[in-house]
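Request:
You are asked to prepare a plain-text protein record giving the amino acid sequence and the backbone structure tokens, at your earliest convenience.
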Amino acid sequence: MTTVKIQHVADGIILYNTRTVAADDETVPAILERHACERGDQTALIDAKSGTCLTYGALWDRTIRLARGLGRFDLGVDRPIAILSENSIDHAIVTFAGMVQGVPVAPLSVAYSQFSDPSRIASLFRQLTPGLVFAQDADTFERSLSLASDMQIATVASRGAVADYIVTDLFVDVMENPRRESIDGDTIAKVLFTSGSTGAPKGVIVTQRMICSNQTALSAEWSFLADEPPTIVDWLPWNHVYGGNLVAMCALRNGGTLVIDQGRPLPGQFANTVDNLATYRPTIHFGVPRGFDQLIQELEADENFARAYFSRLRRMFTAGAALPSVIWNRYQRLAESYARDDFVAHVAWGATETSPLVTLSPSDNRRPDNLGVPVQGCEIKMVPNEDRYDLRLRGPMVTPGYWRNQKATDHAFDDEGFYKIGDAGRLIDDDPTQGIVFDGRISENFKLATGTWVQVNALRLATIDALRPVVQDAVVAGHDRNEVGVLLFMNLDGCRRIVGNSDLDLIELTRNANLRAHLAKGLSQVGKDSGSSGRVARGLILTDSPSQEDGEMTDKGYINQRAALRKRADDVTRLFEDATHPSVVLAVG
């Protein structure tokens, strides 16, 4: 059972887990080599799209053979491998081969290569100075590979004509690798770029110890992993710490099977995920709010799918953004009907800088906003800030700093070495064993003209809950205004259901009296018993989707409030200054 204690310090309190932290000198290559020896015939990776399977023995063989082949390139600690690829078996092999050679790998957002403006990918290349760029499909990433070639960077791909090399041509049939023995916990494994929600993307240094200590902590909480290697079906992109570190390595560290899902919680793509979940029946399901929102609709509509999905499921794990209570409650009701007796749903919290896991909610948790308690090895300092706490983190999962950015590194840590994550929270019932309630990003909150603070995250979630199914997400506005307003990203299918017309587009729906009445009534319910900072007075219907290119939305589907407000400054002005505009809806009452 997890034991959490509290220590009072001069500038706040520190929560810590009292589990003894075992010396953990594991590295990812050592884990893979061990499994290759002990369970070489066990399936490690499955590409759900192609049906290709790779055992631990074959994965390690290909990793070592490619690692030797990488010796022809000018690679090293300061000359990493940049990866432009969706999740794939070759993506994994290139990653692990780099690690075997002690060369950092930097998986970059696929979206960066698809933007019309190539300046962002060029900027990342200049920041990284990679010695090699890998792409799964050279033709798909032709522009970025050409850019790399122009910068005198070697390129390699799984297929396609524009790369310098094809991956399989680099395999060397020599199994020895003398450099592997020099890899330890301090070796840089990856450089992962932040989403840029608070500025330009920063390269987070991820060490072998960060990745492996996260898995040690998770295994301490989930003791069943020692006897039951997990099956995990996952689409979360590997350029993010959640999918690339926590999820993928949960399967591989525990000798399980990772099913690479090419689906997405997007129109026309989620059917692939449903098929894969029904076929492979995971024992652990990691996800983010947008994915669970889509999943629940499918589970509620198809009893056979619900039975298949829950049949082997031991744990559900949500992170990446706060989960609206309506989604959490619907999922819990489904679990009560279909899940095993030992099933547990968890909420967790972390960041790119923490590899990412720092907290996990208790097994008896029933709250979607409970970030949980510190995992093994993690200390959480809570520094008073207004009516909540500024959260700070220390432990083996925390980054040593940012890639070639000492100024950002110095700014990110306090004098005691705690990482200042920028999130706020408060204890549940003042009891450290119950968990921490997420209370938003400190940088997102703002004051009204009255001087009262607006808690953006709480209002965003309350708005989404009140306006389902017609609203997909919301951006909270009102800095220095007299009242709070919201920009509304609409759910087209939900809107059509409310008005009873499947042919209308969003522009036509904006003017629909029934939809506007539904929105006005819903807005009036948000914080109706609160003061001005807790109520939403007006909303503006948006007829487009959040832009990934402009930074409004991350690869995981999380809205970047600051970027959206910056891009949509004219919409914010219209929201507050033109109540007669057809896209503006006022709360009733």
Summary: The mean pLDDT is 91. The longest strand covers residues 419-427.
